[in-house]
Structure formats: structure tokens, C-alpha cells
Amino acid sequence: MDSQPQRSDRRFAFIPALMRVADEEIPVMIANASTDGLMARCDAPPEVGARVEIARADVRLCGEVMWRSGRRFGLRSENPLDLAALFAPAPPRADDLILAKGDRVGSRIAWPKRRKK
Predict the structure, then answer these.
(1) Which residue among 35, 62, 89, 109 is least crowded, i.e. fewest CB within 10 A of its CB?
(2) Is the dihedral of CA 85, 82, 24, 30 positive or negative?
(3) Tens digits of per-residue pLDDT, 36-67?
(4) What is the four-CA torsion angle of 17, 88, 51, 74, rounded to 10 degrees?
(5) Residue 28 in contact with residue 36, Cβ under 8 Å?
């Protein structure tokens, strides 16, 4: 018999969000999510045990960092995640307009100027 707890089904993602650790806001890319938590990538993942908040559009989640490896980290959510809200299309906001380069969070998007007709 398997003694490990069963893991919730994960949905793969490529969702930009902001993470708040203490008073610092850091751009992250959510790589997968379940009702129990998520995996994300950023340049400087928080330490294991850190309490963080992740925000995307109107979705906010708080949790504890359970592991980190390189630029990835896993977050266990304090409350069940609303996956429908997390994966729903969101209107772009300045904080969400980041461009991924490979699996690195890159620079802000520079919108082209409109041509005059």
C-alpha cells in the first residue's frame, strides 16, 4: 500500500502573476496549479517555509513555500484554489504585462505605437 498522500490533479499553466514576500513584489510565472497549491518560477524563489501571497487579476492566494529548486518553487495554499478563476482570461494590467523568455520572466512588453491613418 502506498503511504504517500494522494496529490491533487495538476493543470499546466503559463500565467504571469505577482508574488508578495514581506514588502517586496516579484514577478512570477505560474507553471502549474491544483486546488492545493501551485508551482511557479522566478529569478529569486523565496526560502522554504516563507509565507507569500500571489496575485493575478482579482485572484489572491496565500500559502507557504514547501520546496524550491533552482528558479522553481512549490506553494501550498492556505485555502483551496479556485482554478476556474485562476485560469480565466483576465484583462491586461500593467503588473501582468510581462513577457516570458524561455522560462525566464523578462522585461515589460513595449506596445507598438499606432500608425496614423
Answers:
(1) 89
(2) negative
(3) 999 999 999 999 999 999 998 888 999 999 99
(4) -90
(5) no
